[in-house]
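Morning run. Coffee first, then this:
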Amino acid sequence: MTSQVSNAATDKISPNLPLTDEQAQLVAHIMAFTEREIVNPGPAIFTIYGDAGTGKSVVLAHLFAQIQAAARTDTTTPLAGTENYFLVNHPEILKVYKKIAGSQAHLFKKDFQRPTSLINQIAQGKKQADVLVIDEAHLLLSQADHYNNFYGSNQLTSLLQTTKVIILVFDETQVLRMKSFWTEARLEKLLAPYRQETYRLTHQFRMQASDELVAWINAFSHGQLRPLPHNVGSSYDLRIFTDAEQMRQAIVKRNSAVGLSRIVSTSGYPSTLDGGHHYIQEGRFRMPWDQYNYTSTPWAELPQTINEVGSIYTCQGFDLNYVGLILGPPVSLNAHNQLQVNLDRYTDVEAFKHRADLTDPTELTAVKKQLILNSINVLMKRGVHGLYIFAHDERLGRYLAQD
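And here it is:
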């Protein structure tokens, strides 16, 4: 994509962005798939696989804009008059898409929904859906969640029962909670009975970093710690800090210069959804966790959030220009210089809610550890132009800081 610095989240996934040849061909291929399958008994599914930053959302933005233009303006297409929706199970990302809709001729804000809302409206006979485009499908609930008014067993299963065509993007390394626990194998098993096609995006667009650094992050998020590569990319800024306050000051400078630069952190610090302020403290550094964002503006675009610490729940799916990451107590370095995941130090109690289909203690432990590593993967890949890291564990910090 482009290497220019942007200070608006909508600039990162707008359907006005230019596509690469590969992306344009993929959009055209999925449009042909959709027009072919919409006239057949449903459902048919097109799955796009890809790691964080591989351009999945940009492809979907272009695709949905074309689908809605065809549905609303072209009487010669099989899509004419169809009722179609774009779903994402993340309130902050949904705000970005709704903001984009306001500037596009054939996109309406009502086209963009959270899955539970659409599922319940379809069940009540208030809506129907012909084509669904699902961003961040790895966030779909895979068990009931009464807190979010979902009473089915699996959101994707519910949607498959009511729709003709579904296009979704999926990345198992961004699964963060038990209630939305997925793997590629689980997804493939669920979709096996249906007509489907798949495509895998591999090129990293978000991070202006070297392939070596991206590979290092991927290894880290699978529990493998290696020395940091010397080549991180000529236009990418990687820094390791042993003082969290110094890192904060560096991010504040970046934010003043180019915007969209924020401090984020893993779990492992006091945090309760009670409306109060809960602080992360590391030496001289003391800042509150992000607060629930009731505005229509994404969290990272609110000026005051430079004084908050972002979490996976405010940052997942977003492009920041520079990100300062606090690796909290759940991850450390053991005496053998191996990465260690400490389940007892993870404070996000919602992440590990019980699942009846995970009964083997060994498997359950492995899944929980991978969810923590997935959260680190998500946070490390937020920065387009730079990643700054501070580790709570001193041994890990020293290891990362070694030349």
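The chain has twelve helices and 15 strands. Good start to the day.
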